[in-house]
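Entry for zinc ion complex. Fields follow.
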Amino acid sequence: MVEITPIPAFNDNYIWLLRHPDRLHAVVVDPGDAAPVVQRLRQDGLELEAILITHKHGDHVGGVRELKRIWPEALVYGPANEPIPALEKALGEGDRVDLAGVGASFSVLDVPGHTEGHIAYLGEQGVFCGDTLFTAGCGRVFSGTHAQLHQSLQRLAGLPAETRVYCAHEYTLDNLGFAEWVEPENQDLLQRRRDAEALRADARPTVPSTVQLELLTNPFLRSGVPQVIAAAEHYAGRRLTSPTEIFTAIRSWKDREYD
Ligand code: ZN
Ligand code: FE
C-alpha cells in the first residue's frame, strides 16, 4: 500500500509525496518548489518516478523543471488544457495514471473552476484535488467560472464518504473562521475547530480530511442546508433560487469580506 506524506513548502503549501514502503521510488504532487522535495528525496534515498500536476499556478509547478533536471526519467503528468512546464502526459477526464514504482494508480477527474483546466487524481482511497476543494473551504475562481467550480465541488462531494481529501494548502483554521460566519451554530464545525487547533498547536497537518468531514462542515459543499441558504441570501440581499447562485454568493462573500 502506497505511503502518502506531505512535504511543506512556502508558507502553507503541501507537496504530497507518494512512496512504496519497500522500494526506493517516489512520486510528488504539485511541486511548487524543488528544494524541499530534493532535500526529502535525498534524505530518504529515493528516486523520483513521476510528477503529478493539478493545475498551472506557480505554487504548484514552480519546481518541475529543476526536478526534471535532477531526475530526467521522472514523467510529468498534468492537465491537457493548461500550460504546464515540461508536460509529457497530458490528461483529462477518465484517463488513468499507473505508477508501478510506488504501487499506486489513479483516475483523472476534470474539476475546472479555480482554473479552466484543473484536474484531480482519484485513487488509493483519496483524491489529490489541488486548489479545488480545500479543508473547510474551496479555491477562488481565477480562470474558470463559479458554475464550473460549484459543479466540480459537487462531484468531489459525491465521492465515497471515507475518501481522503489531499488538498494543496494548510488553510483549515483560516477557512473555519469564515465557515463559522456562515453557520455559527453548526456543532460539527465547532468540534472541527477544536480538533484543528490541537493539531496545529502540535505543528501537525490538518490535511488530509475526508469527504464526510467536508460534507458536515464545508460551507461550499452545503448549498442545500437551510442555515447556509439563509446566510447567502442575507449577504446577497435577495432570494436565491439555485444551488449555484447560493454557492456563488458564499464564494463572493468570502472573497470580498473575509480574506
Ligand atoms: Zn492555484
Ligand atoms: Fe495553490
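NOTE: The first strand starts at residue 3 and ends at 9.
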